[in-house]
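#struct-pred

JT: dropping the chains for the assembly here, can someone run the whole complex?
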Amino acid sequence: MIPTTEPEARMPWGRTSAVVLVLVLCIALVGGLAWIVLRELDALSRANSDNLQWSLAQADVEFLHFRLELEQARHDPSRLDQVRRRFDIFFSRMATLEKGEVFRTLRADPAYDLPRSHVREFLDQAVPLIDSPDARLAAALPQLAQTAERISEDVRNLSLEGLAAFAQISDSRRTGLIRTLLIIAAVLAGLMAGLVLLSVSFFRLARLSQTRARDLQRTAGRLRTIVETSLDAIVVTDAHGTIREFNPAAQRIFGYSREEARGQNAIDLLFPATMAESLRGGQLRFLDRARAPQAHEKLLEITAVDRLGRQFPAELSIDRAEADSGRLFVAYLRDISRRKAAEEGLTIARDRALAGERAKAEFLAVMSHEMRTPLNGLLGSMQLLRDHHLTEPQSDLLDRMQSSGRLLLGLVNDVLDLAKFEAGKMRPETQPFSLPRLLDGVIETAAPMAEQNRNRLGWRWIGAPSDTVIGDARRLRQVLLNLVGNAVKFTRDGEIEIETEWLKDGRTVEFRVIDDGIGIAEADLERIFQDFETLDSSYARQAGGTGLGLGIARRLAEMLGGEIGAESEPGEGSLFWLRLPLEPTAPPARSLPRQQATRALPAPLDLLLVEDNEINRFVAREMLLADGHRVTEASDGSAGVDWAEKHHFDAILMDISMPVLDGPRATRRIRAGSGPSAQAPIIAVTAHALPEEIARFQDAGMTHYISKPLDREELREVLASATTKEPPASFTSPAKPRQVTLLDTDQIATLWAGLGLEASQHLYHSFLTETDEIVASLADAPPDQPELEIIVHKCAGSCGTFGMVALRRALNRIEMTLKRGQPVPSADLAALADLWARSRQALEAWRHAA
Amino acid sequence: MPRSLLQPTLALLVRLTLVMALSLPLRAMAQDLAPPEGEVLLTVSGEITQTNVGATAQFDRRLLESMQPVTIATTTIWTDGVQQFTGIPLIRLMRAVGASGHRLKATAINDYAVDIPSSDWVENGPIVAYLRNGAPMSVRDKGPLWIVYPYDTNPAYQGEVIYARSIWQLDRIIVE
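RK: done, full complex below.
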């Protein structure tokens, strides 16, 4: 029982002390009274009284004896001695009554004293007679007898009075004694009552403490049960870390009995010896300092060791407790090796699953990639087959083979895209490109198919048109081609139009691909954007496909930060929309007019083809040979480097992934060497043209790139670009919008038209002089020159005005680097001179032409 | 009073032991009693071995004086103030007569009689006084012999029984 309130707990003590006080008083009182009684008893025990009654009565008797003897002696004189003796006896008695201590009180009483004085008088008178000779005594006998008779009354009174007085005295003494005894009895009764009260109090206290003891015992019992049944080891140590308690779980976990563990140092016993010191100085340092652990120190994971030396991870929860015997540390310790193992198992399983997923995706990517290679071989071979004389049926068969091959390639590319998505390898590009030109291209590409289905195909602006935007042109084209391709597939004798419109926010362009084909049921609109969904319609079956097209389109749109959706009315047609965030920008350098790309066959070139795949090498070689070039083949990078070292080539076509030495490394070696082809243009031939990879190729020293599978037209363009001294400073592929022109002729023409001849002449010359100076100074300027940024900025501005796009960009890059406070690579500064020289050359050539 | 209760008990025990230890040698030590020459003050009879007149042992003043008398000072309830009593210790008297009884009957001239048990015959116990304040006691003055206990030195002697045994005008003793 725990006391609920303080006063209740104190009450018995207050009462007890009061009772004790009363008892002490009672005992003092009893002591005092006892002293009185004892004194009384002492008085009684002294028995001062003798046998008083007898003494007094004896006086009477002895007086009578004396008188009797007197009478007898009157007749018989021989008895005189007897008279004398009787007188003496009586005399002696009277002396006792007169002088005795016990009769002192009587003598103060006149009723006693008067007869006594009479008797004394008689005795005094008689003594001379008694002591006289016999004759005289005999003669005096009658007189004596007479006198004796006279005082016999007094003797009688004397004894009677004495008796009465003593009776009184003993009465009063008895009364006094009784009173004293009564008082004692009362005090004793009080004392008794007090004792009873005290007993009751003590009884209650005893019961209280008994109850408490029982409660404590019960609590202790409960606690013991908790400790003993705990699954966790519970270890109690004193402030020095010496084990005091070691519960059954601890015994089971550590293998020590309680007796063995007690008295040992916990850190030495329960943790590996190699860790003991670091624990003392680290996680458990509060133990040695005997301070309470802080919140973060109370729960920790630790390595423990059992009796057999098995080390296991354990979770330790520890805190300090105050006890009568001093400070204690109570630690709960749990063997978590199983949990750890489970966690580890889970991690491994998860890693395996993830690795499995990745492996699958990679497998898919590799497989589709690997499928493309033989497919490219097939398609390339078919293209080459056309160079031979074919009969008409053969040509028709070839057409079908080629279209099937392209379809297959499309499917493989779809799967590869998907795999790339899965592998998370796709990143959007941001480059300026011309939106109308992109749409023209889409229409152009889809036109043959549209014609097959007798569809009209076109695009138009809704609202204000614009030209150049920044975004990922390649992916946009892919999505639009997919949408247009679908529309074309599901429409016969209809009209397909792409509406393009800037949304109100000015940052988003909505493309709507509208057809009047068969349409899609409402219920199907949702799932057409899922992977592997094809609608069960005759057209769909007829059109074929993986069903990945729209799924990929959706993913691409999402990757580019846009949305895609569709609306449809079955039988009426469909509308697919795509909203993409694009950034309008000033029209940049315009690449060479498109028609220039379809150029005449270039002059025969001396080329090095580095390609490990035999089929690819064969296709490429045949294409090049067909165009009249001379081709030297190398089957890996190392062989390529060897050729480049000893022979001058007009250009080198370099595959990227090759055994022994890959493309970029081979390029570095060629560039680093001093062979005849060290400065030759090197064209990267790659299937994976991700932006960061292209940057890597460029870093290695490659000047152009062309993607696999090789397209004859594209190959011609790239070769032309590479060999006609077009800018090697920027990494270009002529088919891509990334191409950076050296000179924007439109820009300079506008400038010229606006200024008039004279002004433009003047400006032209001053610009050339100024820029000559600046570029020269920049070439050997220390990269940390403070005014560098201003000079570069100004120069970039003038270059922009004169349409020198490449130079302006190079300068802008330097400026940005300076703005960020980074050091400008001196190579960048040094490269400016060459760029300037070529830009200037281009400008002079244009002016000359103009 | 504790003293009054404890002490007599202890004293009694001590005395009993002494009596028992000394009784045999005492008898052997006893000398033959000379016959009395003057007035006989005390006649002892009964269970005694030493006699001088017939079957009795009779004592005159001279005989008593020859028995190494002692003097004690004490108050009594019958007298006024401290008194000097000179006499023969009872125990010595009993040895002298070779008393073998367990009590004695003392009788006075006035025929007052009292029994004194042998437990009272002890050293530092009662004496048979024949002088009071150095003077012989007359019959008028409770003489000639008075058995006096040392009341003041031994509280056990302050009881009524002892007072009753304090016989004066003693002249006969019969050992029983």
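JT: nice. The beta strands of chain B are 40-46, 57-60, 70-74, 83-89, 103-108, 113-117, 127-132, 135-136, 146-148, 170-175. The two ends of chain B are 34 Å apart (CA to CA).
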